Amino acid sequence: KWLEEGKAVTKQQAFLMKRALDNGNLRDGLKYASNMLCEMRTGLLSPKNFYELYIMIADEMRHLEQYFYDEWKRGRRMVELYELVQHAGNIVPRLFLLISVGSVYVRSKEVSARDILKDLVEMCRGVQHPMRGLFLRNYLLHCARDKLPDVGSDFGDNVADSVDFLMLNFSEMNKLWVRMQHQGPVRDRERREKERLDLRILVGTNLVRLSNLEGVDCDMYKAMVLPRILEQVINCKDQIAQQYLMECIIQVFPDEYHLRTLDEILDACSQLQSGVDVKAVLIALMNRLALFAKNEPGSIPPDVNMLDIFHSHVTRMAASVDLAGILDLQVALLNFAMGFAPEKLDYVDQILQVCGEQLAASGSARVDGAAERAVVSLLKTPLISHGNALTIILLEHYAPLINYLPFSSRKEVALLAARMMSKGSVPMSTPEEVDALLSFVQPLVKDVAEDEGEREELDDEDLEAEQSVIACIIHRMANEDTGILFQMYVVARKHFGQGGGRRIAHTLAPLVFRSLQLALAIKKLEIEGQEVAVSSKKLFGFSLETIKGLAGSEPNKALRLYLQGAQAANDCEEDKIAYEFLSQAFILYEDEVSDSKVQMELIPIFIGTLCNLTHLDIEDYDTLITNTTKHAARLLKKPDQCRAIYQCSHLFWNDKIKDADGKPFQDGKKVLDCLQRSLKIADVCMQSGPHVSLFVEILNQYLHYFDAGNDKVTVKYLQGLVDLITEHLANLDTSPESLAVKAHYASTLAHMKAKKEGDEAEKFAELSI
User: Would you list the DSSP string of 622-653?
Assistant: First the structure.
């Protein structure tokens, strides 16, 4: 309501003022301008509304200022106008008018800018009402902004005059701003503080203009400007003013100036009121200088040791700040150190040591709230800034800090370190490094009893994503010395072995593969006659033990790893070790695998592995394939039995296994037995449903061995199967499955026909298709 009334009066009086000025009636124009400016005398508006009214009036005053300029151009002396406007009845409109005339007076250069500006800034003392005085002086600053003496200015080049003007205006505005805090009843204190915060930018504008003066170089800033600003800041003894003005100093003046005046600024911080958040001021200063050092590395003066200066002041403040505050300061100092001198990790470790001592002195086993967030930042910042997680973790005082965090935060930091290590370019090269890293990422590697109440059970997908990062770390172990690399794997298994069933399913498998790779590499060195620190047999033993650790929780995965180990041992021509791997696989199959679907998946893998082995003893091989065939015959579902048994026939016709005379292992009779047995099972299956596909598959097996030269498989078996399949297909209903079977059978017949008509016509002559 009051604002709208004020705006209405302003609009009306501004219109009358402009009409009078257009008619050349200066006296009436000044009267209407005075009436308009009288609206600035109100005490009923909030700072926000007062500012809106002020902007409106200041905009209208431009017309009056332009009229004064035109009058001067027409030959009127500015001293007359300067004296004329002083006849206004009230001091507020009088001073606004005086400033408007004074602005043109400076432009006219009839008198030096220094004298007029000094006169105006002194006369503004006539308004001591805080809000009115602030806006009046802001209007003065606004009108004088482009008329201050400066290097290259048309109004003089003595920048000291501008500094004096701005500093006087700043000090008076600051006094008015502080005085607002002590006017009115105590119950309105909160409202007054809010109003003061709304008006703070008016005071800070003086410092912004000071920072824009071209003539204020670093030396003048250090000798003349900063001491006077800090004197005002310290002497006002007001918490809000000190907080804002210190932040303003840091933000508006160049970084190069701060570098030269660090001691002065930090000394001033120690003299501020107890309620001032000095921590925020220091953090802002350090963050700004850290960014400057990062962007302009060559601009730091060699004689400025910022790290030591900041460290000494932060240490001095520790006694007057709580634990969270101390840690926040150290985080800022750490940020500054990483930005200013990222290569000085000893300084980083020194900061971490101070933090560790403060945490130990607090007596808390775990921190929370702001202190927890600060410790997380202390641990994350060097990891992210430096990039090499291993180098940071190996710092003496870094890793112990993680123990002060609750489980969720420890896990957060550990996951970051693990990800950075997995993607980094520098591998782990010693057992000590592996131990240090896996100890640091312990929340991801194993369950700790004291964290039981803090942990949340992860679902399988989250756990898999988390453990895949840990699994990647295994591939970041490297050393040309095979003995040291083996020791690294031993340390890793020690840590992973404590992870529980859900974790080791993801971590032990890659460790087994790396161990088998190392065994192959060592075997190659042994064959070349080179001396090795650890034998390939020891690596295979290590792999066997590792897989056994996985067998209890993940038998399916462990069994496949045993078969992989058998293949690796065979490649190293270690037939007894290969046999041991296979034996353990069969034991595990018999003891742990009861799901028929899984059994059917594993039997072909057994068969494929045995068919690829080339160095097994004939007797051992015969034992293993007989065992495999028995397990195939015990499958629950008849179709599975049928397929598994005809697949086992390949075990008895294996060119890769040879006896002492070099003859391949080929037992035609047992091959035929397997095929005949699978045929009988297929016949049984036909009683429960149409399983013609089994006969077609068996026909293809017979055809394979007939082609391979197995004399036990004759044309009569092929002819019998062809007739049997043809008979069954005639009775088969039309369905997608039956169409697939017919297509498979047609392809098989086409192959046989091609054989009969080709080079092997004689061999297939008796076959009737």
Answer: HHHHHHHHHHHHT-SSHHHHHHHHHHHGGGGE
